[in-house]
Design goal:
The strands form three sheets. The chain has a seven-stranded mixed β-sheet, sandwiched between helices. It is an alpha/beta fold. Helix 3 runs parallel beside helix 10. The chain is globular and about 60 Å long. 40% of the residues lie in helices and 14% in strands. It binds 4'-deoxy-4'-aminopyridoxal-5'-phosphate and glutamic acid (GLU). 4'-deoxy-4'-aminopyridoxal-5'-phosphate binds next to helix 4.
Length: 400
């Protein structure tokens, strides 16, 4: 029998991906399950973006692209970074990948050696920790509780840095909490980082456009320019442009790191789909009016979810500023019993119970913080209303 590699022995499947497709499989098998696990907009890709892909096919623009990406797309990304973030990047400082996930994977594989540490504030997006491990690095998880609105404080950052620290991963707006680092908060983190010049920053900005408050989300090097040379921005079109299945992400950062990322890409996928890349050029250069409409809808849904969760016995949550997730505490359900006599001992148990009651969500444990669970509100108001009613009833039916 062929054994799989030791490197992958401790790597679980992505919990977010697994839960999403488990819910879909249950639905296909005829079970009445509402999936609120998926981290993708329920809106279709805007028509003008899809049309650009169709035009690319009709014009025969269907051959391999350079590993770093089409020059036209890298120019469009450089334009976007200037326009949205006032950051100057040349196109040789940008590399396009098959989604931000692969871009991040490439960065870690291209930069980590055994013993290198990667600071990951928790709760975190599931894949940071596992990608760092696959790449041979050591994740250093720093719990960031509700008291700091799930954000890394300067003190906690300072305490986590060692001579082996290679990267600090920041995600803002955050998956799973929706928290956004303000300019002031980022400057305070930058003051700590100034004392540790060996630490690089991976800044995951994939939810950049999904912001519902007054302050826009900016990468740390936009507010602390002294960090520019050691910041690597990871971003992509999946979320804000409703393009999850197109698989377009990118990194922007120091030339030598970006060129290592492109070399690695040349040995794996060569490039992401050329057709998707032409669609991405249109997405970045064309009209973005749809974002405003989408965000209005997301904001209403967010308020609905927060309101209903806080009315459900045993659950509570804060109002997230961005992304399309609510990270809710289920602490007060722990120790209670279901009507079939099972005791809820963890957020995993609570999530299994909700699945029995017809709603799929992701346990906080997958994001490194318990007892919580994540709801994605990228679903219609009708679907959300029905799911929230099921959650409410499920909580109400728990026994002491
Ligand atoms: N970062 C975060 C925080 C995410 O939630 C996702 C969603 N999958 C990604 C990166 C990767 O997105 P994609 O590969 O679709 O660009
Ligand atoms: N990022 C999304 C999520 O957190 C999509 C799935 C994944 O890639 O993790 O659900």
């Amino acid at each position: 029998m062929i054994r799989t590699s030791k490197r992958l022995a401790a790597v679980p499947p992505s919990a977010t991906v697994a839960t999403t497709f488990k819910a879909q499989a249950l639905q296909r098998a005829g079970k009445d399950v509402i999936g609120l696990a998926a981290g993708e907009p329920d809106f279709d890709t805007p028509g003008h973006i899809a049309d650009a892909a169709k035009r690319a096919i009709d014009r025969g623009l269907t051959r391999y692209a350079a590993p770093a990406g089409l020059p036209e797309l890298r120019d469009a990304i450089a334009g976007k970074l200037k326009r949205d973030n006032n950051l100057d990047y040349r196109s040789d400082q940008i590399s396009v990948g098959c989604g931000a996930k692969q871009s991040l994977f490439n960065v870690m594989l291209a930069t980590l050696d055994p013993g290198d540490e990667v600071i990951v504030p928790a709760p975190y997006w599931v894949s940071y920790v596992d990608i760092a491990r696959i790449a041979g690095g050591t994740p250093v998880i720093v719990p960031c509780g509700r008291g700091s609105r799930y954000k890394l404080t300067p003190e906690a950052l300072d305490a986590a840095i060692t001579p082996s620290t290679k990267w600090l991963v920041l995600c803002s707006p955050s998956n799973p909490t929706g928290a956004i680092y303000s300019a002031v908060e980022q400057r305070r983190l930058a003051e700590v980082l100034a004392r540790h010049p060996h630490v690089g920053i991976i800044y995951d900005h994939i939810y950049e456009h999904l912001v519902y408050g007054a302050e826009a989300s900016q990468p740390i090097n936009a507010v602390a320019p002294e960090l520019h040379e050691r910041t690597l921005i990871v971003n992509g079109l999946s979320k804000g442009y409703c393009m999850t299945g197109w698989r377009v992400g990118f990194v922007a950062g120091p030339t030598h790191v970006v060129s290592a990322v492109s070399n690695l890409q040349s040995q794996s996928t060569t490039s992401t789909s050329t057709i998707s890349q032409w669609a991405a050029v249109e997405a970045l250069n064309g009209s973005r009016g749809f974002m405003h409409n989408n965000n209005e809808i997301f904001k209403q849904r967010r308020d609905l979810v927060v309101d209903q969760i806080n009315k459900s016995p045993g659950l509570s949550c804060d109002v997230p500023d961005g992304a399309f997730y609510v990270f809710a505490s289920c602490a007060a359900t722990i120790g209670k019993k279901t009507s079939t006599g099972q005791t809820i001992r963890s957020d995993g148990d609570f999530v299994d119970y909700l699945l029995d009651r017809g709603v799929a969500v992701v346990p906080g444990a997958a994001f490194g913080m318990s007892p919580f669970f994540r709801i994605s509100y990228a679903a219609s108001t009708e679907v959300l209303t029905q799911a929230l009613a099921r959650i409410h009833e499920a909580c109400r039916d728990l026994l002491d």
